[in-house]
Structure formats: C-alpha cells, structure tokens
Amino acid sequence: MKRRNNRRPTVKANLSSPIQEYVVEGLTHEAKGVARLNGKVVFIEGALPSEIVSAQVTKPGRRFDEAKLVSILSTSEERVVPQCAHFGQCGGCSFQHLSYQEQIVSKLGWLKNQLRRIYSQGDISVLTGSEFGYRRRARLSVKVKGTSIEVGFRKQSSSTIVDIKQCPVLNHSLERLILPLNQFIKTCSQPDKIGHIELLEDDLGVSVIVRLTGTLDILIKESWQELAALHNFSLFWQEAKEDRLALPASELRQYQVNNTAIHFHPQDFIQVNAEVNQKMLDQALSWIDLSEKDIILDLFCGGGNFSFAFAKTAKKVIGVELLPSMVENATRNQGVNGLENIHFIAADLTKIESASLIPSGVTKVFLDPPRSGAMDCLPNIIKLAPEKILYVSCNVSTLSRDAEFLVANGYQVEKVSLMEMFPQTAHVETMMLLQKSKKQKR
Question: How do the pLDDT tens digits run along the chain, 442 residues long?
C-alpha cells in the first residue's frame, strides 16, 4: 500500500497577476484593507474601508491572497495625509493614513473580537494621549554597503533599512537629532564600526548609546563627543564585546511617575510613552482599589514602575522580576524613595521552587508580562486565590488565552481598557481587571 503524502502543493506567487478592482470592506489589526473577489478574501496594504481600489495580487494563498495597492478609485472620508514622509516605507507606523479617531475605532473592534468569548457584552474604555511626539526611546540601525550608508529604521518584516530624516512619533528632543546624526555618520570615518544608535529622553535629558561592532579610532570618538556637546546629549559607548552597556550606579538614568523617582539603566525596559504611562498607573490604582490591609504581588515588576505606587497604599508589595539587574535597580529605587513595605525578588514563578518564595496572604495580583503572556505562572497564581487580578498586556492574543484560563478557574472579567500607548501604529495595549467569582470566594 502506498503511503499517502499529506503535504499540500506549494502555491507559487504569480508575478504577472492582473490588476483588478476591489471594494474594501474592513481593516485588519495590521491596517491592511480587507476585500473579496469571487468569494476569496484579499488583504490590501494601504487600502481603507469603504474605498474602491485597484490592486495586484503579489502573494496568492489557499485561504486568502495578499495584494499591493495600485491606485485609489474612490477615497474614504477617513483617509488623511500622513505626517511622515517615510510612511509606507518605514515599518514603524501603519496607521498614519487613517484619521486618529478611526484608528481607535479599528483597534476597539479588533480587541472586542479577540475577547468575545469572555467579555462579549462589556464596554471597553480608552486611555489616550498625544497622537504624535510621544516616544521617548528609539533605535537607529546603521548599514554600510560599499559606498552606501543608511541610517534609519527597518522596513516591516525586512532587514532593509529605510534611510530616515524625520520621525514625528518621536518627542521633539529626539526627532531633532535624527538629521544631525544621519549626516554625521555619513561624513564621519569608520561608519562600518557602528551597529546601531539608541536614543532616549528622560528627566536627565537626552542620551545616545553608540553600539560598536569594532574598535573605533580615538579621534573619531572625540568628534562624537563634539557632536554631543553641540546638540546637548549624553554620549555612551557600548563596546563590541559588551552584551550590555557597562554603567556605574552613579550614571543611571531617571524618570518620575506618580511623584516617585525611578532610576534605571538606559537599556532597561521602560514604557516609551510617558504621558500614557502616568494615566495607565492612575487607572491601575483606581481599578485595583488597594487598602492598607492588602498584600499585592507585582509580577514582571521591572524597575518598580507600578510597585512604588502600590506601596503608598498597600500593606505590603512583593515585586517579582526574572532579571537580577532590574531587581537590583528596583531595590536601589526603594531606598531612594524611602518605602519599606516592598520586597523585591529575582525569581521565575513558572518554577515550583521560586513559587515557594511568595508568602501566604496575597490578596491582589498585578501582571505586566512580555508578549508571550503569563500562562506558565497562572497555576501558581490560582493557588494564591487573590481577590483581584489586574493584567496589563502588550499582546491581546496571549491576554485572551490567559484570561480564558482564569475565567475557567473561578474569575470573571470586570473591566477592560484599550490604552493608546503607540498611536499611528497597529500596536494594542490592554488593561483587564478580573475578580474572583462570588461562588469561588471563601
């Protein structure tokens, strides 16, 4: 008997596919227009709902096709002129051609669909801030190929660098450095020794980290110092053999949130939108409703962005973070701010031995995990039986998965909020409050 081959034949791209007319019906969370032709779904990058466009299929598939926009025959009333000259090339923003109000409508629709099984009837509130000029951190790639030098951001799903001269989503202090840095690198010797440039603004001003791929001549480094003095930024070197910038505690950066000073290494994670970060923290405090009797577990606590705000009301805060370096900074911040009711732990709560470090009596839990979510930690959280769980997520798919697990184990979704941490992009940040069901309460 012959063995059946279950592998389906590969669908090859038809580079000579005809240009056809489409009526755009919707929008994906990646800002691609959704249309149909002969019953088959076609995703068209750059097309907006209600538009009639001509497009050419570039990537045919079994369930759907992907097409490139050729021309717009009938324009949506919600289409606007992008503020950035690099829009459509740079992979950073995907929504600049859509009015900001409709960006939010689109994200809300996608969020509601993702959470439909656990929160189908509930309202979703929205936290917003500035539409542009909100990012306080950026990373510029440097690519040298022969006599060509490119300084900028990557194209979407590509290693190609878009040589940029502006970036209106960056705050003013960072955007004004883009052109001087671009010009300097292209006229300075040894550009091939530079891997990338990290830009950051905090309460101490602007800092620039130059990531080296080789040894830079001392005279070139001196010219960089002159550039830093001219444009008033702090300059740091991450040498080729360093996985992380070596920095003494005296040179840590700083920002304030909720009247608390947070000191951090310039390559540590911080929320890039300071305005929405403050609003997010205020909402978290309101939703979780701490009292002086509460013991709250702050998982993935980082440098203490939320921990210190919780500590001003709660009886005790237990901050857990996997990276020892961030726990060290958080502990240092604790001393600076004079808060004695916090205990920071470097641990992995997915492991049984680490879970045993958490004392009994936890009443509330706060989660702010990476994109992969917190599923591996949830069984240990369930054992603690907290009254409330407040979950902040940068990935709605893993949030939905994790929330379904919590609902199946005695919790119900009380509130959901869309937080516009990254306007003009397809990124969705979400806050969800879950409470122990009445039947499950002791």
Answer: 333 333 333 334 455 789 999 999 999 988 999 999 999 999 999 999 999 999 999 999 999 999 999 999 999 999 999 999 999 899 899 999 999 999 999 999 999 999 999 998 789 999 999 999 999 999 999 999 888 999 999 987 788 899 999 999 999 999 999 999 999 999 988 999 999 999 999 999 999 999 999 999 999 999 999 999 999 999 999 999 999 999 998 899 999 988 889 999 999 999 999 999 999 999 999 999 999 999 999 999 998 999 999 999 999 999 999 888 889 889 988 988 888 999 999 988 777 566 777 888 999 999 999 999 999 999 989 999 999 999 999 999 999 999 999 999 999 999 999 999 999 999 999 999 999 987 655 4
Helix axes 396-408, 100-114, angle to 10 degrees: 40
Q: pTM for this structure?
A: 0.89
Active site residues: 394
